[in-house]
C-alpha cells in the first residue's frame, strides 16, 4: 500500500535529474564557448607619438569593438579549429603567376605574384610581400581571402610558398623550410625590388611567417630599404620560451602540438627521397636513424631536434631555437611595426606576450594590438552563427597599411613644402 502511494513521486525525481543534467550541460556549453566574455576594443600598447596618434585616428578598427560571432566566436579553440579546418568561408580564387627562383644550394623556391585590381588609395605602387604560417602557401584559403582583399585595395601581392609545402612541387635539394630561415623570403623580396624598382613594400607575416619576416628585417638594415611597414599576426616571438608551454596540457596546447607534428611528419615523409634518399648529399649531421625517430615523434620539438635543426647545422635544439627566433632581432627594426595577437590564442601562451608588450614600451615605431578574442589566425566576424568571408584580421592589416602609406605621403609632402620654402628664402 505504501509502495503504491510513493509511485507518483518518482516522475518528479526523474524530472529533477533531467533538469540538473540540462543545467550541467548548459553550464559546460557556456564555459566552453566563453559566452559570458564581453566584447571590447583591442588592448593597445604603444608610445605616444605623432605616428601613433595618426594611426588611432586613421584606423577605426584599433578603437572599435571586435565582435566575433555570438554563439561560438568567443571561444579561441573554435576560432582556431575553424581556421585550421576550413580556413575561411566562401574564399575567392585570386589569379596569379607562379615564380621560381633557384637558390645557391640548389633549392627551388617558389612564390605567387598577384597584380592589383584597383588603384591604391594614395596612387602609389605598393607591394605586399606575404609570408604564410607553418607549412602553408598561397593556395590556403585564409591567404586567398587576404590577397583578394588586398588586391581590391590597390596592392600587388607576392606570397611565399614555404619550401616543401606545395604538394606538387618537388624539393631539389635536401632542405625544406624551417622556423626562422629567411633565405627564400629574402629571395622573393629581392626579386620584387629588382622587377618593380619604383614599388614600396608592406611586409606581412602570419604565425610562423611573422617570425620569419621580423627576423628578416632585423638581420640587416639593408633589408628595410623600401619597406613602409611590417605587420606580424599571431606569432610566438621566442621558440625557446614557447617549447616548454607547448608541452603543457593547459589550453590543450599539447594536443595542438601533436596535430601540427603529425602534419609536419606527413610533409617531410612526402619528400623522403629528396631528404633521405641514398643518392642525396645530406647534411653531415642528418643520419638515416633520424628518419626512424621521425616516425615516432609526437611533438614539433622532437621533429625539430631530429630533423629540422640539422638542415642548417645547428648542434642543439636550444641553439636552433635561439638563432631562428625573431626575438633577438626585433629591436633592430626601425620601420613602423604592428604586432597582433589574440588573448585567447590557445597556441601562444600569455607569458610570450610580454615580449611585444615590452618592445612597444621602448620603441615608438611599434604598436602591439591584443584583442580579447580571435584564436590563432581566426578573427572571424559575424552576427550569430555564420561567419563573414572577410575577417577582422584581413581588414586591420589593410587598414594599417593604408594609414602608413598616407602617413608617408604626408611626410613627403611636408618635406617638399619645407624644401620649397627654404629655397624661396
From TrEMBL:
This is Monoacylglycerol lipase ABHD2. PANTHER family: ABHYDROLASE DOMAIN-CONTAINING PROTEIN, MONOACYLGLYCEROL LIPASE ABHD2. It is found in: Cell membrane. Pfam families: Abhydrolase_1 (PF00561). It catalyses: hexadecanoate ester + H2O = an aliphatic alcohol + hexadecanoate + H(+); a butanoate ester + H2O = an aliphatic alcohol + butanoate + H(+); 2-(5Z,8Z,11Z,14Z-eicosatetraenoyl)-glycerol + H2O = glycerol + (5Z,8Z,11Z,14Z)-eicosatetraenoate + H(+); a triacylglycerol + H2O = a diacylglycerol + a fatty acid + H(+). Residues 127-382 form the AB hydrolase-1 domain. PROSITE patterns: UPF0017 (PS01133). One of its GO terms (cellular component) is sperm plasma membrane. Belongs to the AB hydrolase superfamily. AB hydrolase 4 family. GO terms for biological process: acylglycerol catabolic process; medium-chain fatty acid biosynthetic process; medium-chain fatty acid catabolic process; sperm capacitation; steroid hormone receptor signaling pathway. Its EC number is 3.1.1.23, 3.1.1.6, 3.1.1.79. Gene3D superfamilies: alpha/beta hydrolase. Its main location: membrane. Keywords: Cell membrane, Glycoprotein, Hydrolase, Lipid degradation, Lipid metabolism, Membrane, Serine esterase, Signal-anchor, Transmembrane, Transmembrane helix. GO terms for molecular function: acetylesterase activity; monoacylglycerol lipase activity. It is a single-pass type II membrane protein. The active site is at 207 (charge relay system), 345 (charge relay system), 376 (charge relay system). InterPro entries: AB_hydrolase_1 (IPR000073), AB_hydrolase_4_CS (IPR000952), AB_hydrolase_4_sf (IPR050960), AB_hydrolase_fold (IPR029058), ABHD4 (IPR012020). The lineage of its organism: Eukaryota, Metazoa, Chordata, Craniata, Vertebrata.
Amino acid at each position: 500500500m505504501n509502495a503504491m502511494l510513493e509511485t507518483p513521486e518518482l516522475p518528479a525525481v526523474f524530472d529533477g535529474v533531467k533538469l540538473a543534467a540540462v543545467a550541467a550541460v548548459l553550464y559546460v556549453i557556456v564555459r566552453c564557448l566563453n559566452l559570458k566574455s564581453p566584447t571590447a576594443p583591442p588592448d593597445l600598447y604603444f608610445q605616444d607619438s605623432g605616428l601613433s596618434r595618426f594611426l588611432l585616428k586613421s584606423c577605426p578598427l584599433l578603437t572599435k569593438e571586435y565582435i566575433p560571432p555570438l554563439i561560438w566566436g568567443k571561444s579561441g579553440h573554435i576560432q582556431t579549429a575553424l581556421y585550421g579546418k576550413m580556413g575561411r568561408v566562401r574564399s575567392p580564387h585570386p589569379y596569379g603567376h607562379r615564380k621560381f627562383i633557384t637558390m645557391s644550394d640548389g633549392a627551388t623556391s617558389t612564390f605567387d605574384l598577384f597584380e592589383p585590381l584597383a588603384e591604391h588609395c594614395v596612387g602609389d605602387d605598393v607591394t605586399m610581400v606575404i609570408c604564410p604560417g607553418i607549412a602553408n602557401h598561397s593556395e590556403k584559403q585564409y591567404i586567398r581571402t587576404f590577397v583578394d582583399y588586398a588586391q581590391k585595395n590597390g596592392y600587388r601581392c607576392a606570397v611565399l610558398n614555404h619550401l616543401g609545402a606545395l604538394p606538387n612541387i618537388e624539393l631539389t635539394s635536401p632542405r625544406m623550410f624551417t622556423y626562422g630561415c629567411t633565405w627564400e623570403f629574402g629571395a622573393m623580396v629581392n626579386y620584387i625590388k629588382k622587377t618593380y624598382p619604383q614599388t614600396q613594400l608592406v611586409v606581412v607575416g602570419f604565425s610562423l611567417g611573422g617570425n620569419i619576416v621580423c627576423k628578416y628585417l632585423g638581420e640587416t638594415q639593408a633589408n628595410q630599404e623600401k619597406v613602409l611597414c611590417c605587420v606580424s599576426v599571431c606569432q610566438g616571438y621566442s621558440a625557446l620560451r614557447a617549447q616548454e608551454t607547448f608541452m603543457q596540457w593547459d589550453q590543450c596546447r599539447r594536443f595542438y602540438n601533436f596535430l601540427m607534428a603529425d602534419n609536419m611528419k606527413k610533409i617531410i615523409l612526402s619528400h623522403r627521397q629528396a631528404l633521405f634518399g641514398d643518392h642525396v648529399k645530406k647534411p653531415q649531421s642528418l643520419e638515416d636513424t633520424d628518419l626512424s625517430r621521425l616516425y615516432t615523434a609526437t611533438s614539433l620539438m622532437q621533429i625539430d631536434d631530429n630533423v629540422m635543426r640539422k638542415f642548417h647545422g645547428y648542434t642543439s635544439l636550444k641553439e636552433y631555437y635561439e638563432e631562428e627566433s625573431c626575438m633577438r632581432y626585433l629591436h633592430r627594426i626601425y620601420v613602423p611595426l604592428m604586432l597582433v595577437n589574440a588573448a585567447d590564442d590557445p597556441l601562444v601562451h600569455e607569458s610570450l606576450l610580454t615580449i611585444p608588450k615590452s618592445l612597444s614600451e621602448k620603441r615608438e615605431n611599434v604598436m602591439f594590438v591584443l584583442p580579447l578574442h580571435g584564436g590563432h589566425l581566426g578573427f572571424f566576424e559575424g552576427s550569430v552563427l555564420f561567419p563573414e568571408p572577410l575577417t577582422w584580421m584581413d581588414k586591420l592589416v589593410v587598414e594599417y597599411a593604408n594609414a602608413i602609406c598616407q602617413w608617408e605621403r604626408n611626410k613627403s609632402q611636408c618635406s617638399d613644402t619645407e624644401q620649397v620654402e627654404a629655397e624661396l628664402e
